[in-house]
Amino acid sequence: PPVILLLHEAIPQHFWCIPFSVDGNPVPSIRWLFNGTALAEGPYIHTRIVEYEHNSTVLHGCLQLNRPTHVNNGNYTLLVRNPLGFAARSVQGRFMENPFTPGTCGHLSPPRAGRRDPVGPQPEPRPYRHQVSVAVALAVFACLFLSIMLIVLNKCGRRSKFGI
């Protein structure tokens, strides 16, 4: 009967990979469940056998996920089956935090009792206001300095009419 030798948490590569190794003779079929329901494989999520050893019954593979988001977080169960039996093992997949949960950017919390919230979005604080004004002042000073230098060189750098 088939045996799941290895099932690890997802690792980032050029894509995300949930690595696995299975053994069985005859060669077992491989299916995946996502949060208890059948995982529909397609161009962005699919099973790939990475290494096939000649004269061996062990299959090394990977469930590839191309650019998974918080929607893909959950429980991934590997199911292997052949005529002699089946095996199953699960692993948690965490790819990205949910950007819409409380306490993260983009979430507006409901107003608390006794607190008055102004209507509409509030402007972001300007932590670099002082640095920006210093940079602008330095740029203006540099432009004025270069302009004065060009005028001085133009006036004083002329050849004298009497220097023949």
From TrEMBL:
Residues 101-126 are annotated as: Disordered. The keyword Heme does not apply. The chain crosses the membrane at residues 132-153. Pfam families: TrkA_TMD. Keywords: Membrane, Transmembrane, Transmembrane helix. Residues 132-152 form the Tyrosine kinase receptor A transmembrane domain. InterPro entries: Ig-like_dom_sf (IPR036179), Ig-like_fold (IPR013783), TrkA_TMD (IPR040665). Signal peptide: none annotated. This is NTRK1 factor. The gene is Ntrk1.
